[in-house]
Design a protein that fits this description.
This protein is about 35% helix and about 15% strand. By secondary structure, it is of the alpha/beta class. The protein has a single domain, classed as TIM Barrel. Strands 2-1-14-11-10-7-6-3 form an eight-stranded parallel sheet. Strands 4-5 form a two-stranded antiparallel sheet. The radius of gyration is 18 Å and the shape is globular.
């Protein structure tokens, strides 16, 4: 990481999605655990109420997810129409977000160079309108973006090469690891585009998307940072100093809040270790 100081630690709200009926209580609990920011998994889910609850609990919302590159999304077994990008920008602005992130583009659209070019064009066409609202656009990966190649590179890195230089990236360390990537090296190649990292740990990263069918999140065997074998620390070290670490669990055995607390403590201990090392070598 470009700095020994830990940037704002964020929590993806999908990690506590079953506890969001009482926003104030849940966000208060996250703040008490040491979180400084949250990342909504949908800008459309009570943005005004969420912004107020975050502010009341001293939490910022630097990043937020919204589908920007798809016409429909599948939720609860139904295909739902995606609101126009302008609606996403308005909701993100209401939240006070700086970066609005497309969370998932279906695996079928990551097979060929033409597929990727169409998605990149769609993202690039939104950059100016987002900038006019004071927003930066970004993309969040899963594993399937790395399953196919264009020449010598994965379709993911080919996609990045086609993006407007103002488009940012949120790299999910678990999913990139599941796809067989050397994630610290990947982040080094992506450089300053990387504005956020999704962090969770595990004894291994399981690529459930190889079969192309649904899966039970429990098979991912995700756990608190520092209790598994993923290279989250090396990924953070490779990222720009301003990169936001976002703790996220698709599923964790036991209490999600306990896993979040342990993860925050692990990140803070790592930051203190890097700070001490910097002082020794100064």
């Amino acid at each position: 990481m470009g700095s020994a100081t830990m940037p704002t630690i964020s929590v993806q709200l999908y990690s506590v999605r079953h506890d969001l009926a009482d926003l104030d209580a849940t966000l208060g609990r996250l703040a008490a655990l040491g979180a400084q920011a949250i990342e909504p998994f949908s800008v459309y889910d009570r943005p005004a109420e969420l912004a107020a609850a975050a502010a009341a609990n001293g939490l910022s919302i630097p990043t937020a997810h919204a589908p920007l590159l798809s016409d429909t999304v599948r939720i609860g077994g139904r295909d739902l129409a995606v609101p126009p990008p302008a609606a996403a920008f308005a909701a993100a602005s209401a939240l006070g977000a700086e970066i609005v992130i497309d969370p998932m583009v279906d695996a079928e659209r990551w097979r060929t160079a033409d597929d990727v070019a169409r998605t990149a064009d769609r993202m690039n066409a939104l950059v100016e309108s987002a900038a006019a609202e004071g927003l930066v656009l970004a993309h969040h990966n899963h594993s399937f973006e790395f399953h196919h190649r264009v020449g010598d590179v994965t379709v993911y890195e080919h996609f990045v090469s086609l993006l407007d230089e103002r488009v940012a990236l949120e790299v999910d360390v678990y999913w990139a690891t599941a796809a067989g990537q050397d994630v610290p090296a990947l982040i080094e190649r992506l450089g300053t585009r990387v504005r956020a990292l999704h962090l969770k740990d595990g004894q291994e990263a399981v690529d459930v998307f190889v079969g192309g069918e649904g899966y039970d999140p429990a098979v991912l065997t995700q756990c608190a940072l520092g209790s598994g074998r993923l290279e989250n620390g090396a990924a953070l070290a490779a990222a720009p100093g301003t990169c936001i670490p976002v703790i996220e669990f698709d599923h964790v055995d036991g209490d999600a809040f306990a896993a979040i607390a342990a993860s925050i403590a692990h990140l803070r201990a790592g930051a203190e270790h890097r700070a001490d090392a910097t002082e020794v070598h100064a």
